Amino acid sequence: MEISQGSSCGIKRGSIAGIAYYECSDYGTGVPILFVHGLCGDKELFTRWLTSARDMKINSYALDLRGHGESGGKETLGRLSLEEYCGNVLLMINHVIQRPVILVGHSMGAVCCQKIAAEHPKNVSVLVSLMSSAPRGVRPRGALVRRALHPYYLKALWKEQPFVFRTAEEYFFLNRIPRDIGKGLFKQESGRATKQLILGKLRVDKPIKPPHIVVSGKYDLAAPPSQQRAIQLKFRTLWHLELNTGHMPMLEPNAEENLKQILIYTT
């Protein structure tokens, strides 16, 4: 399987089987970090955390799930599934990183990472569920849930078409983000994968054996702390860290400190 690479500003660009990724990997043999984005996201969300990990001499990676960012698959984005996203993450671990990782999944990405940690525990050194969407068996909390019933979203989910968040919903994700950073942040997402997420179609029935940290944001309106506590109970997780953030801790003014707080629990 061929891997192509280039570099810029200390962050290398690579791709494998149409999956694009960022890599900072010249910093020793410690356990590397893999960041996985959520709905309507891409690897660009994690550039500050990649450089922060680099400054801490920690190898780190972030990928664009298929159909997102610089990855291929945009022509079929509306029909891409959560299972396919999980496969993208496993591809990165098995063929690029080639060792167990600290797996950091954000929002929808956290649900995919929970599935991977349960089904492939040898690939995961530590799992971090970061502002996780509600997995199967956990009732979604927050006012954002009702907005998913808007005809705009129902049409995209029913017909499995791509969509992007409306401005009216962006506030729930960006309430702690400076306006200039949040502008144009969200990209298109799969109607099918989002439907699977809302209906709880991605089953995580096996126990999660790797150490698991559930992280919530005190001011998160999209995946509030009450939802994260329910996820902690579902998976019988020992650790729940509440940051003084909203839904996007990697973009807030104190992003670097947020990552340091999380990594304390992974050592």
Automatic annotation (TrEMBL):
Residues 33-255 form the AB hydrolase-1 domain. Transmembrane segments: none annotated. It comes from the Bacteria. Pfam families: Abhydrolase_6. PANTHER family: HYDROLASE ALPHA/BETA FOLD FAMILY, PEROXISOMAL MEMBRANE PROTEIN LPX1. This is AB hydrolase-1 domain-containing protein.
